[in-house]
Design goal:
By secondary structure, this protein is an alpha/beta fold. It has five helices and six strands.
Length: 194
């Protein structure tokens, strides 16, 4: 039987309110996303968390000539998962952007996630998290390229710039992803598992 994975992209302290590179309105995401993750676990989905895990000299950092402030440095508090989200024993944690020159936007970028999901017989993924127009977008596009049926959970993502969301959704749908709310996704998910 094929399986479904819920990918939770980069809900790390540095990307949430008060962090070094905060997306917009992340406080309103945390409790609904926690409930979504719990419901997906109960429904039998595999939960994948991705997180930037950068070396201090990462090429994307402004002090090193990159576009971003220093964020999600490996082993620091800013790189930790934002509470109340938590990883359980059956979840997978994928660290990305671990090389000095690896941008690491996508959860699939040099992480082995594609192979791990195929080994687990996953054929469908739902993507949630931060930030819609960067790492969420890249992860969804790479999921499609890897051959996974891909959903974007529109109410479980947050952008850096709210005006970017419409363009990203249009691009992903054109590429073959389906954009829908978590509630709509659960209805489809439950039907397939009856």
């Amino acid at each position: 039987m094929t399986k479904t994975a819920l990918i939770v992209v980069d809900v790390q302290q540095d990307f949430c309110e008060g962090g070094a590179l905060a997306a917009a309105d992340t406080t309103s995401l945390l409790i609904p996303l926690e409930k979504c993750i719990e419901a997906a676990r109960k429904a039998g989905a595999i939960i994948i968390f991705t997180g930037d895990w950068h070396p201090p000299n990462h090429s994307s950092f402004k002090p090193n000539g990159g576009p971003w402030p220093v964020h999600c440095v490996a082993g620091t508090e800013g790189a930790e998962l934002m509470p109340p989200l938590r990883i359980t024993a059956n979840d997978l944690m994928i660290h990305k952007g671990v090389e000095v020159n690896g941008a690491g936007y996508s959860g699939f970028d040099a992480t082995g996630l594609d192979e791990q999901l195929k080994k687990l017989r996953v054929s469908r993924i739902a993507v949630s998290g931060i930030a819609t127009e960067y790492c969420v977008r890249a992860t969804a596009l790479d999921g499609l390229k890897a051959g996974f049926e891909t959903f974007l959970l529109t109410d479980m993502v947050r952008p850096v710039e709210a005006r970017a969301t419409g363009g990203v959704l249009a691009e992903l749908e054109k590429a073959g992803a389906r954009a829908l709310s978590a509630e709509e996704w659960f209805k489809r998910f439950e039907k397939r598992h009856e």
